[in-house]
């Protein structure tokens, strides 16, 4: 009897070990298939990201150019390489809420202009670009290419944008639109024509809420 019990215990142990080994093998097999699937998923995602990046570069290349500078608006020679740019002064027609710097051919909304001019006055150097991401998308304030215009709009439309930046971006797009609407088509550059032809830019929601925000744009 004792031998039989001993054999029975041994058989139970063997069956248990055999079953456990089979379960581990199945788990390893499943993990292997899951890893392969994850690899394929990552590979597919990488291809999609590469395609999106390529399309974005092509889109920027198509839209990030100035086009011909129209006769009559003026040319500003700027930079170390004496690059010809459209003179963004627009013959002083931008209004009191904007400030034009002839040193950098840059247009600032009034609140940012106060900081820029104060820096220039105190340091006797070219004005400092205000600490706002707006000028990352449009380095000269007013958008000079369709791509800069598009990037400004996307930044303005982002609900997480700081309110100050939203007001500044709104003013830059709106003032350029208002000025462009008064120009003959022969005086409009490529960006102005895009601005007038795309209704996306026509009726921007005014983010100026009251007297507090008027301090951002008043002289």
Protein described:
Helix content is about 60%, strand content about 5%. The protein starts with a helix and ends with a helix. The chain is globular. The strands form 2 sheets. The chain has a two-stranded antiparallel ribbon with strand order 1-2. A two-stranded antiparallel ribbon has the order 3-4. By secondary structure, it is mainly alpha-helical. It has 7 helices and 4 strands, in the order αββββαααααα. Helix 4 packs across helix 5 and helix 5 packs across helix 6 (about 190-195).
- Count of DSSP-assigned helices: 7
Q: How many beta-strand elements? A: 4
Percentage of helical residues?
55-70%
Gap from first CA to last CA? 107 Å
Give the uncertain stretches in residue-range form.
1-23, 25-30
For the sheet with most strands, the description reads: 2 strands, antiparallel
Output the helix-strand order: HEEEEHHHHHH
Instruction: Tell me the radius of gyration.
Output: 32 Å
């Amino acid at each position: 009897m004792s031998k039989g019990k001993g054999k029975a215990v041994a058989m139970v142990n063997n069956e248990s070990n055999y079953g456990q080994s089979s379960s581990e093998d199945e788990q390893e097999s499943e993990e292997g298939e899951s890893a392969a699937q994850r690899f394929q998923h990552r590979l597919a995602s990488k291809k999609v990201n590469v395609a999106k990046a390529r399309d974005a570069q092509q889109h920027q290349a198509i839209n990030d150019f100035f086009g011909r500078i129209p006769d009559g608006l003026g040319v500003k020679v700027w930079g170390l390489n004496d690059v010809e740019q459209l003179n963004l002064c627009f013959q002083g027609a931008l209004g009191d809420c904007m400030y034009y710097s002839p040193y950098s051919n840059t247009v600032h909304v009034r609140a940012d202009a106060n900081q820029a001019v104060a820096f220039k006055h105190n340091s006797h150097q070219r004005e400092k670009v205000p600490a706002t991401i707006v000028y990352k998308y449009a380095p000269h304030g007013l958008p000079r290419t369709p791509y800069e215009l598009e990037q400004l709009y996307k930044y303005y439309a982002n609900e997480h944008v700081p309110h100050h930046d939203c007001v500044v971006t709104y003013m830059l797009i709106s003032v350029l639109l208002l000025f462009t609407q008064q120009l003959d088509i022969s005086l409009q550059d490529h960006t102005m024509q895009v601005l007038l032809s795309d209704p996306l830019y026509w009726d921007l929601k005014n983010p100026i809420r009251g007297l507090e925000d008027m301090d951002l744009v008043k002289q």
